[in-house]
């Protein structure tokens, strides 16, 4: 229980992510027609309204109901695991990253439970290395990706600092 108490300050991070995610999705669902494209810049950033019944990169089991059930179960298991890892962590940046992931996971879980799919709307064009345009995503997805980048950086730099002390 003591370990969970240390996570309370980071709970605000998760709540802010959930709030921004849900508000942005609400605005998109109520102001953009499905499939409509709004070009914020000529090529780099576009907005479009897509309901994704699959997972990352639109991964799908082919059946929307099966997707909904499995991805809800997977999300709940992942959320429990994230809280567990957060409680075990002593690294503040890692705990912050877990809070970002938790907020993103809950944001997308809310969509799956209420709507049966996840609202995606940000569409970016990165250099044409692998694909012409990146798959459409949302604020929750961005939060998770940013957290993973922070964790990788933390692991790399923490390891280097630890090895220097020896």
Polypeptide structure, described:
A three-stranded antiparallel β-sheet has the order 1-2-3. It is built from five helices and three strands. Helix 2 packs parallel to helix 4 (92-115). The two termini are 34 Å apart. The mean pLDDT is 86. It has 166 residues and is mainly alpha-helical. A hairpin with a 5-residue loop joins strand 1 and strand 2. It has one domain (2-30, 40-165). It is globular. It has helices at 2-5, 8-31, 64-88, 92-115, 139-165; strands at 37-39, 45-52, 118-124.
Give the SSE layout:
Layout (H helix, E strand, L loop, with lengths): L1 H4 L2 H24 L5 E3 L5 E8 L11 H25 L3 H24 L2 E7 L14 H27 L1
Antiparallel strand pairs: 1-2, 2-3
Helix pairs in contact: 2-4, 3-4, 4-5
**What's the main sheet like?**
3 strands, antiparallel
Overall SS class = mainly alpha
End-to-end CA span: 34 Å
On the 0 to 100 scale, the average pLDDT is: 86
Q: Which strand order spans the largest sheet, edge to edge or round the barrel?
A: 1-2-3
User: Approximately what portion of the residues adopt beta-strand conformation?
Assistant: 5-15%
The helix-strand sequence is HHEEHHEH
How would you describe the shape? globular
Tell me the number of structural domains.
1
Name the descriptors.
166 residues; three-stranded antiparallel beta sheet
């Amino acid at each position: 229980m003591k370990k969970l108490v240390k996570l309370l300050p980071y709970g605000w991070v998760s709540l802010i992510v959930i709030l921004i995610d849900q508000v942005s999705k609400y605005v998109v669902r109520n102001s953009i027609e499905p499939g409509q494209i709004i070009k914020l810049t000529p090529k780099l950033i576009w907005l479009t309204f897509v309901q994704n019944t699959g997972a990352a990169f639109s991964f799908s089991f082919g059946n929307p109901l099966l997707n909904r059930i499995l991805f809800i179960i997977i999300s709940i298991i992942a959320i429990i695991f994230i809280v567990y890892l957060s409680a075990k962590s002593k690294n503040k940046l890692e705990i912050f990253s877990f809070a970002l992931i938790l907020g993103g996971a809950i944001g997308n879980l809310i969509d799956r439970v209420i709507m049966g799919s996840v609202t995606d709307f940000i569409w970016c064009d990165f250099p044409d290395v692998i694909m012409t345009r990146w798959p459409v995503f949302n604020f929750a997805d961005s939060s998770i990706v940013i957290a993973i980048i922070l964790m990788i950086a933390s692991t790399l730099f923490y390891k280097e600092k630890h090895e220097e002390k020896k």
